[in-house]
Amino acid sequence: MDNSQINTLGNALYEAMVSRNTLVPFTEQYPDITLEQAYQIQLQFIQRRLDAGEKIVGKKIGVTSKAVQDFLGVFQPDFGQLTDKMVYQEGETIDLNELIQPKAEAELAIVLKEDLIGPGITAIDVIRATDYVSPCFEIVDSRINDWKIKIQDTVADNASCGVYVVSNIKADPRKVDITMAGMTLYKNGELFSTGVGAAVQGSPFNAVAWLANTLGELGIPFKAGEVILSGSQSALVPVTDGDELVCHIAGVGGCKVNFAGSTKV
User: Fold this and answer.
1) 22: pLDDT confidence band, cut at 50, 70 and 90?
2) Which of 113, 114, 250, 262 could be cross-linked to 181 through a Cys-Cys bond (beta carbons 3.0 to 4.6 Å apart)?
3) What residues contact 50, with CB distance under 8 A and at least 6 apart?
4) What pLDDT does residue 77 have?
5) C-beta separation of 158 from 144 below 8 A
6) For position 64, what pLDDT does the model report?
7) How far is C-alpha 238 from the geometric centre of its chain's CA atoms?
8) CB under 8 Å to 201, separation ≥6 — which residues?
């Protein structure tokens, strides 16, 4: 795969996002596509969003929990970029008319007060650099047909980022055992899923350390003020018009989100 093909696929993802259409999996079109090439496609996809006026506000880590790994059939984390256009404030209703085939996941958002530059970052370094943590929902969305993705497909597709909402609660990670904190997720008032911080690479802070070191090797720092979605602690939740999701992380607090509109798929 040459640079022209990489740019073409990155552009195709952007156009699919704008038109709310899906694409044939890249791993079907190009069976030999590598993970490095997939990240190069992601960069082109993100560049199109930046060219359209969006700004990077953080990062997300994906494919960290066994539940999500089993669903996607992949067994290693990935990462994507968060932009300001993806952000919903708690209390706002998420507009499904702007999404294609969304699924929600509950997780912990980590906001930095200091730059975090790898390699050599440990979970302790992450905790020291953290301003606060908050419960959040990430609404993942795929520009690939029917979520038929392998790791290269989701990486190229910016780790299947859709939109996200972070709770107004700001908890001190030095006062809560995030690793052992239990999480509950309710859909329309009924318990849908339970989880624990340890399901995310042993700890959400381990996941962030992994990404800091991965990005550090690429010369990309985490910057103070950035939001990091540390990885799902729940099973993926299909969402539709009128749904309400509520998650609660013990010792931290909760987050609620509502949905309205019609998805493309």
Assistant:
1) very high
2) 250
3) 56, 83
4) 83
5) no
6) 81
7) 16
8) 64, 77, 207, 210, 231
pTM for the predicted model, two decimal places: 0.94
DSSP code of residue 92: S
For residue 22, which of 253, 261, 197, 263 has the smallest C-alpha distance? 263
Can you tell me the mean pLDDT for 177-197?
Answer: 94
DSSP 231-248: EESS--EE--TT-EEEEE
Kindly tell me the number of DSSP H helices and DSSP E strands found in the chain. 7, 13
Residues with Cβ within 8 Å of residue 1, at least 6 apart in sequence: 30, 32, 33, 34, 37
How many residues are present in the chain? 265
Closest CA to 133 of 97, 86, 178, 186: 178
C-beta separation of 176 from 135 below 8 A: no
HSE-CB at 183 with a 13 A cutoff on CA atoms is 30
Question: Comparing C-alpha atoms, which of 161, 158, 148 is closest to residue 22?
Answer: 148
Token couple for 179: 């690793």
Q: Which two tokens stand for residue 176?
A: 């809560």
Tell me which residue of 102, 201, 89 sits closest to 160, measured CA to CA.
102
Q: What burial class does residue 34 get, using C-beta atoms within 10 Å of its C-beta: 0-12 exposed, 13-18 middle, 19+ buried? A: exposed
Give me the helices (H) in 169-217, please. 204-217
